[in-house]
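Researcher: Please translate sequence to structure tokens.
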Amino acid sequence: MDDEKPLAGIKVADFSMVYAGPICARMLGDNGADVTKIEPLGMGDTIRANTRIFSHFNAGKKSIQIDLSQDQGRSLAIKLIKDSDILIENFRPGIMARFGLDYDTLKSRYPQLIYCSISGFGQSGPDSQRAAYAPIAHAASGYDVSHMRAQLKNDSRPPASGIMIADMLTGAYAFGAIQTALIAKLRSGKGDHIDITMLESTMMLIPGQQQSAQKIDAPRIGGFQPIATKGGFLMLCIVSDKNMKGLCEAIDRPDLLQDERFVRGKRLLHMSDFIDEVEKWSSVRELGECEDRFDEHGVPYSRYNAPEQLFAEPQLRHRGAFREMVDEDGDYLIQNAPFQFQSFDNRASQSCATAGEHTDSILKSQAKLKQAEIDKLRRDGIIE
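Model: Translation complete:
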């Protein structure tokens, strides 16, 4: 493998906190970028309260703490931005402008800067000032209602939200958008402002539901359902005629191929009846026996893994999906990016900075300050 990663030499000023922005910046760092995390005074990023979750989103970054509410703090931030290729922020629209660090203010001075703004609803518009976290985007985007409608039981209460889908998805889209801007910059020499929203990122999960919503009496979308076995549940995805043939062979029910309710195009409308027929076979058999039969006949399925089972999953171990880390409580794992390259190693860094760990070294190397100047800034409460 090559020693140099493709983003080596690219400098990132990461003003973002919590999930969406930080995971984008971490993936840039995984692929060679030099990422500096700019954090507020005190505890820094709010998710530092859980150091292991924090490391998942921020491994490999340098950390500097600056008080952006003070003029001297903003001047330091400008010096870091001047030395950066990419800026990432996920404040509510208008906050960076309050600091004088918004794109419109900076673009004339630093036209080469790629400025990525991540927000719930966008930099402008009637909802731009609404606070947003992942569960808000799930609800606003139609994702939760689409998920609710896919259930066989009619429960009017929308599902609880314990997984930050919108954050992770938005971070991934931001990562891709930044690569596009970097390529464009090679051609034009100019940076750009990327305006990416959690709302629209999450909406990308429901294209079928969006199209169905524009039709009268449209068929149900997203009706894949689990089946019961004696040892738990399996998720089946019977999509093609080949899938259906394999399933009918596996459960010894060739008659289902002739049932008009279950032909492709109608099956989702009769999903409850379909599951009942399959469970006549699966519910009296052990989970492992069902898996063996499905494997034999090429039926798409999966057992339900709990998070604690993932670390021993053979396929994930084979791919090296996790990176070993150490903290004061012992060893733990964080997940690597879900894409790998043959030519270079893009696994997550095994280091994770404490809040402000690199403040002095960054101010010396990038802001060209002397130690006496740094000490004074610390006494004045500008840095920690």
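Researcher: Any highlights?
Model: The mean pLDDT is 91.
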